[in-house]
Structure formats: structure tokens, C-alpha cells
Specification:
By secondary structure, the chain is an alpha/beta fold. The strands form two sheets. The protein has a five-stranded parallel beta sheet, sandwiched between helices. A two-stranded antiparallel sheet has the order 2-3. 56% of the residues lie in helices and 14% in strands.
Length: 208
Amino acid sequence: MSKRVWRIVRLGIILALAVAAAALVALWNILGAARVEKKAPADVILVLGASVWPGEQPSPILRSRIEAGVALYMQGYAPRIIVSGGLGKLPPSEAEAMRRVAVGMGVPPEAILLEDRSHSTLDNIRNTAQIMAAHGWRSVLVVSDPYHMFRACRMAADAGLEAYPAPVADSPGWTIPRLRVYFTFRETFAVMAYEITRVGRWLFEHIF
């Protein structure tokens, strides 16, 4: 094997090991945050969206999230709920589907704010942060599946919010083994991608 080929192979091995290490760190953070629940009084309960099913019905994961958010509202953790999620493949928007469930469970319509423009977790957080800033709100209970807590709360903190994790432990996305594996695997790479952007942003702000 020539020296040039060996250098390419060695570089490939180093990169593969680096990616594997980053994935393990991301997975460690995801699984660690999934077990952390810090319910505390807050300005807002934020419920992150999931898919809408045919017939304008919330998917089981979406329903479990909004039901958990409503439970926190009924327990007095916050005086309002922001439901966040845009229009996916099927109408209505994720936010509207959640609003209907929340109203049906007894939440006053005036206590629900719709954020229906988002199509990613980063959109969810940034758009919600704008709504909160306009009202002078800062603290937020973040409601989503356990595998989602690390990234969602990290994004919220980066957006200047005081975020408390409220994982939905009984969501089908967590309790059904194959879904738990699938979503956690997908989330691992989403966390890695976000961390790369964080590092890039830091480098741009502090070096370039």
C-alpha cells in the first residue's frame, strides 16, 4: 500500500472514529436527559408538535403530548399553553390539532396560543421564543417525548429561555420499543447536526 493510500485510509479511520465518538456522546446526552423531569411553575407550557393523521386526527404521539401539557396546565404549573407545529402532509396544522384536544379537555381557548408556522424543532423554539419575548415571558415547561428533551431544552436555552423539561414518558414514541429505537437513533444524528451548528456559530462569533 502506497504512503498516499495509507494516509487516506488513516484519515478515513480517524473520521469514522470521531463520528462514532460524537454519536455515543449524543446518545449518552439523549438518554440522560430523557430521565430528567423538572416540573416547576413557569410562564408558559410549550407542547411540541408531531404528525396529524387522516381525518384531522392527532397521531397517538401528538395526542399524548398535548394531554400531558393539559395535565400540567390543570395542575397550575402555568397559566397558558403554546401549541407549536405547522402544517404537515395532512391538515390541520399540528398546533390546531392540539388546540382542539386541549379545548375539548377543558382548557379555555384564551389560554391557548397557536404557533403554527414551524416545521422543525428549531422553528418551534425560535418562533415560540419570539411569542414569549413579545409578552415578556421567559420561563417555559417543554413538553415532548423523552428522547426529544435534550435537544429541545438545549435549543430553548440557546434562545434565551429558562427551560424546564417535562418528558411524556407514556408517549407511544417512547413506550413502544421499535419506535423508541427508531426515534432515538434519528434524534442522535439530529443532536449531532445541531451541535455542529452551535460550534460553527461560536467560532464565527469569537474568531472570525
